[in-house]
Every structure is written in C-alpha cells, then in structure tokens.
Amino acid sequence: xxxxxxxxxxxxxxxxxxxxxxxxxxxxxxxxxxxxxxxxxxxxxxxxxxxxxxxxxxxxxxxxxxxxxxxxxxxxxxxxxxxxxxxxxxxxxxxxxxxxxxxxxxxxxxxxxxxxxxxxxxxxxxxxxxxxxxxxxxxxxxxxxxxxxxxxxxxxxxxxxxxxxxxxxxxxxxxxxxxxxxxxxxxxxxxxxxxxxxxxxxxxxxxxxxxxxxxxxxxxxxxxxxxxxxxxxxxxxxxxxxxxxxxxxxxxxxxxxxxxxxxxxxxxxxxxxxxxxxxxxxxxxxxxxxxxxxxxxxxxxxxxxxxx
Length: 308
Known about the structure:
Blueprint: E1 17-26, H1 36-61, E2 62-63, E3 70-71, H2 74-89, H3 95-104, H4 113-141, E4 145-153, E5 161-172, E6 177-188, E7 200-213, E8 222-233, E9 237-238, E10 244-245, E11 250-263, E12 268-277, E13 287-292, E14 295-296, H5 298-303
Antiparallel strand pairs: 1-4, 2-3, 4-5, 5-6, 6-7, 7-8, 8-11, 9-10, 11-12, 12-13, 12-14
Helix pairs in contact: 1-4, 2-3
C-alpha cells in the first residue's frame, strides 16, 4: 500500500503495523516446581498402578515364552492368524482396508471370562490414570497469566497510533470458571496536524467471565460467557478516509452475554449472544442486538471419515 493504492512503492509507509508481546507472569507450565510434588505422587500411585496393570494384561493375554509371541485366548489367536493371512494376500493399496475390516471383526463376544475380567481391571486402572492426570492439568490451567502487548499501527489516512495493552487471566473452581481482563490505552504517535488534539487517543478496560458446564462424554461442554468493556474516547474519532467526526469523543459501554451450545459428536457448536451498548465509536446511538451462528471443528468432522 502507499499513497497510490494498488501500486507498490519502496517506502516505509508500506509497513502497516508492528507488534510485540512480552509474557510478564506465567505459571501455566506443568514443569514448574510448584507442581513437582503433584507429579511425583501421581507417578507413585496412579501411573505405577496403570503400569503394573499393563504388565498384568500382557502376561494374561500373550505367551512370550515361545519363539514367537502368541495370544493365549483361542478366539484372539484364531483372529490374529486370519488377519496375518489376509494381510499377506493383500496388495499394499488394500492393506489399510484389510486392517479396518479385521478390526471390525474382533471376536469380542467370544473372549473367555478371565480375558474379559482382565480387560475390565485394565480399563479401571486406565480411567484412574486419566482422571488423576487431568486433575493436575486442571490445577495448572487455573494458574495466572499476565502479558503485555504493543502495536504500532501505521495508517494510510488516519494518524498513526501506538497501543499498549495488559492482559491477565486466571482460572477458578477446577477450571470451570475462567476470568480474563485487559487494560488498554492508545496514543497518537504525533499530534494530528491542524487540530488541538492531545496525544491520548483512548483508554479502555474489559473483563470477561467464562463458565463451563455439562459432560464432555455425555452432552458436550456448554460455555456461558459474560463480558463488559468500558472505553473512554479522549478525542473525536477519525473515519477510514481520515476525516474527523465532531462530537464523537466520550464514554462507551458495551456488554455481552453468550451461550455456546455443543452438538455432541459432530464437531459443531451453536453460539447465541445478546449484545448491548450505549453507543458505538462513530455513532452516538444505543444499540441492542442478538446474534446466533454455527462454528465447525473440521478435525472432528474429518476424523469420522477416517477412524484409524
């Protein structure tokens, strides 16, 4: 970009924005010293129990004393031999489909009672392992974070701006609640020519509280959010064309309530929000509006077409 839109010229005005970020405070690292005791206890109990149960499962399922490892359960042994034979006869292009078909034919209903009981014990230990690991990770996720952002906006028609922003976040109630806040102020890099403006352009503070409820396994996780922003415009606003809109400086209050509804198993979420404001930056009129839409998690959707 430049003075002539669409024509590149090697001038500094081609640079539209410079940004930088500094992490001032961050305890959301599971390797930090304050979490060492939690991980040591986890390794000595849940992880050790899971490891022992995995060894027990291997000893119960597999005969490793022979030259070739064999399944002890007759149904699994027969299935394994059939799978090997099918793969040996398949072309490389058909190998994947053969594996998928044979996995669908696992003889679950023909397994012996001891085999099934050992599977149940393994599942129990594995669930304990996941539960206790997630408990530590939730504790890590509640730790505080504070960052500082700087941006230098090099506008074409409007005056250039420097924006300074502090952002903080903290979790509560085992990760069920998350509080985020930021404080921002912007200054003109130089006083706008032909005006009596000061250097301060605006200042604002914002806060948002997110709460989750529901079960990830049963219904999906719902998210209820409440947000509020207060902004003080110290000077009149500029349009994109660079003209000044008189009598636009003042105070702006914006609030929003939003509920995000998951559609379990489909990778789709349905956000519904209500937003209200006493005015906008350019227009001094009250505003209330509702919005709804859909968001898609493509990884979840594509995974259904390629389960292995």
